[in-house]
TrEMBL record:
PANTHER family hit by this protein: ACREF/ENVCD OPERON REPRESSOR-RELATED, ACREF_ENVCD OPERON REPRESSOR-RELATED
DNA-binding is among the record's keywords: yes
Protein's UniProt keywords contain Oxidoreductase: no
PROSITE patterns: HTH_TETR_2
Location of the HTH tetR-type domain: 9-69
Record protein name field: AcrR family transcriptional regulator
DNA-binding region: 32-51
Residues in the signal sequence: none
Spans through the membrane: none
Keywords: DNA-binding
Family matches, as InterPro entries: Homeodomain-like_sf (IPR009057), HTH-type_Tx_Regulator (IPR050624), HTH_TetR (IPR001647), TetR_C_Firmicutes (IPR039532)
Organism in which the protein naturally occurs: Clostridium punense
Length: 190
């Protein structure tokens, strides 16, 4: 007897949704398969048809949220003043904010930020290294710094209920990248 693909996909999604509801409330090491299946309304056997354990659910969920290189928009550095592709990151973060705000938060998966950075680095490297003569090792450190800052500030923005308008946040991030933190602070001396 063959299962219907729509039913199979819905069952899998119901299990993922149940897991996510629990993950939003507590750390993964406190979540059991029994809790997930009870919340989703299935038995443990059904869970194991789709996943090996709760860590597998998280891994599959994260894989679906990390854009593949071919899913990212191409970056073009049109002029000398162009900086990092903040609009691309804002769009990606906004699209997945329900998940990113938890995964990148205090109780989230510490490895998720690295996965997110590593998925975007190749696209940025291709755009920048073709235009600028910069040591690739040094550029790796620059990218790590900038991407960590971008992920951090966007995570904070969501935790603070988007207290700053999105345009202002992007403008602030561009200003910080182009002029540095101290110039921004010093420009506001009383």
């Amino acid at each position: 007897m063959r299962k219907q693909p729509e039913v199979t996909a819905q069952t899998r999604q119901n299990l993922v949704d149940a897991f996510w509801a629990l993950y939003c409330e507590k750390r993964i090491e406190k979540i059991t398969v029994k809790e997930v299946t009870q919340k989703a309304g299935y038995n443990r056997g059904t869970f194991y048809e789709y996943f090996t354990d709760v860590y597998d659910v998280l891994e599959k969920l994260e894989e679906a949220l990390i854009p593949a290189i071919d899913e990212l928009p191409p970056i073009s550095i049109a002029n000398e003043k162009a900086g990092m592709p903040l609009d691309m990151f804002m769009a990606l973060y906004e699209e997945n904010s329900k998940y990113y705000s938890i995964l990148l938060g205090d109780n989230g998966d510490p490895a998720f930020a690295s996965k997110l950075k590593n998925s975007t680095k190749p696209v940025i490297k291709e755009a920048f290294l073709g235009k600028y003569n910069i040591d690739p090792i040094e550029f790796d450190f620059i990218l790590e710094f900038v991407l960590s800052a971008m992920i951090g500030i966007m995570s904070y923005w969501f935790r603070e209920d988007k207290i700053l308008p999105a345009e202002d946040l992007v403008s602030l991030m561009y200003d910080l990248m182009e002029n540095g933190v101290m110039k921004r602070i010093e420009s506001n001396i009383i």
